[in-house]
Fold these 3 entries.
Entry 1:
Amino acid sequence: MTPVLLFASPEALSLEESLVRALNTSLEPLEVRQFEDGGVRVRPLSPGRDADAFILQSLLGADRLSVHDRLFRLAFLIAALRDHGAARITAVTP
């Protein structure tokens, strides 16, 4: 059976709680680091080899992060999961 991993960005906190309860699962750890020069590092802290990875990412722009910033964080996480060998990656972007 293929393992299933669920990741949620810090911007999706209001959505993740209800989803975790409904699916009776837990979120995988995720590192999000903002650098002084504006760069960002997003990476999963769980091994994702041969897993089905689901990413919950809200794209609603706000004062702190624009839609552009949120899309790039999503793209960075997708690339990191692909590099870690995830079998399939699904982005859930309400």
Note: The chain has a mean pLDDT of 85.
Entry 2:
Amino acid sequence: MSDFKTYSLNLRGRLLEIDHPLVMGILNVTPDSFYGGSRCPDTLHIEARVRQMIDEGADIIDIGAYSTRPGAAEVSEAEELARLEKGMAVVRRLAPDAVVSVDTFRASVARSCVEQLGVDIVNDVAGGTLDDQMFKTVASLGVPYIVMHMRGTPATMQQLTDYTDVTADVLTYLARKVDELHQLGVADVIADPGFGFSKTVEQNYELMHGLEAFHALNVPLLVGISRKSMIFRLLGVTPADSLNGTTVLNTMALLRGAHILRVHDVRPAVEARAIVAADAQR
């Protein structure tokens, strides 16, 4: 088991200590996310989802309004923001003190969410590649930023899977991004290797096998493998049948020192964390 590196995030004056793995629950205010069970297209579904995640022990709520699955429909900036406004109204009403990240690759949407909706963290699946203003915007906002590895766009990413060594290549890419962000003044950066994005099933498992290498970045490490194709394609099932595989992979990630697990199913991740922690104390 990897030694757990501790970090802290400055949420505009509020300190979030990462002295144990955190569980980030996914709130998809979309009608077309790849896992049907996560879709919350209206207020009633959003309310039920938020209550469930809080009750089950989510440390962070990650709200997204633009599906990045291959083949997903385009969403205008106005529609994305309208969905986020609806979702955040529910979150702040039911859980006013919750730590919230926004899943967006648009700098303008990130700014609106932080300044107007009270979002704490920006989670960018494109790592700044789809909006050249994202890094400067996050620096000016003074909030933590999750930089993920992805090539191309959600529509083209699975055609861009040629690596010399997937772990080394992704690590080098993220190291450059982390350095660029720090130079721009972004103090708190979180790295996400981007499981399922621009990677084959085999490459995803190679990345998981080498996960401990990413601690060399000296930033918190986020792992998001919940119900993804690396599970359901390997096992010949569907996303709906991929919870068991998700829990196995989350446990592997915890054993390799992951700081944040991004999940659809909060309770199983919380339970996996508790079991791994109990074992580590022996």
Note: The chain is about 40% helix and 15% strand.
Entry 3:
Amino acid sequence: MTTKAFSYIPQRPPFVMIGDMISTNSKETITSFCIPEDNILVSNGYFTEPGLVENMAQTAGAGTGYRIQMEGRPTPVGYIAALKNVTIHSLPKVNETITTKITFEQTLLNFHFVKGSVYVGDNLIATCEFKIFENPNPPA
């Protein structure tokens, strides 16, 4: 299942930090993203820490958006309510492809608790835990 992941999130260029959706199900979403040189979160030839965090958040949003669109409902808007245990081991370079895996740990009311991991090849470069609030009344 490779599809353009940004069709499942509300963000639009230039603030799209995901590329292809590799797979998704109720527990896990995996995306890939080739870092373009002109990305607004690139600095000095590297994708920055905020870019990695936003990439993980958008990967979570794409998985949720995909499932909701398959149910015939509009794509929800989610907000990062909390970040925890953010660890950045290294920054990916321009033109490198990152693969991001999000694991949905728990949902409570409109909050999703997720864990994210970002890789370049087999090398783990970043991890984070999120609490994401899903707006129950998305804009029309």
Note: The first strand starts at residue 3 and ends at 4.
